[in-house]
Amino acid sequence: MQKRKLKNIRKRDISDAVETDSPVDDQEKELKSHGVEGIEGRFSFMMRALPVLFFILWSLFVSIPYLGKIPTVYVSIIAAIVSVIAGFSLRPFLENLFAGVIISFFKSIKIGDTVTIDGHYGLIEEIGLTYSVIKKWNWVRLVIPNSKLLQKEIQNFTMNDHFVWTHIEFFVAPDSDLKLVREIAHRVAKKSDYFCDVEEPTMWVMKLDKDAIECWLAAWAENPSDAWELRNDMRTQLYIELQSAQVEFHKLNIKS
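RESULT FIELD:
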């Protein structure tokens, strides 16, 4: 199991959530190194913890016949003290620890995945024993306890593949020539260096209001980082070319 996980992370092609000139010499190498250290650390901890756990269970099992010789009052007091200590001190640690094991083995997220969690867009940089680290698009690190992470809804852009069919929204005036708008929209998407030419761009008319026509423009990108840049290109060029073609819009409300 450990060897397979190490092999998988070493051969992964990892790209940043947003393309940038990294201040780190080899960001991908460093990220893989974090992943390898995390995997080795988790398996090493489990290998050390299992004998201790088995010893504790064995000790409890062996001591069962002798419990009858200890006054019930003392047994109750000891049990209460142990319960209080375990409840306040060990519960958060154990919750995060078991959550980390579940995340590691069930592969909902992996080192290098591009995700959105609670509105935070970034890269899974580390999955530790008790917490995970997300490197956000602006290189700020977000540390989340594993027990909390396990309960959150995660949008994973790279779980099975890296392709993203990304889109933007924009609004044009009700009397606009939609045929012209569609031609411009398709053209600006295809002109982008980040457009993945597996399918023609698609434009939909999503809503007809008295003040504006809501449109969506969708196109393929090879990975989440390219999708970020593609959306920026489509927004910028769409604004420029719609103005050049004298296509009016109620308000420019372009968003992803």
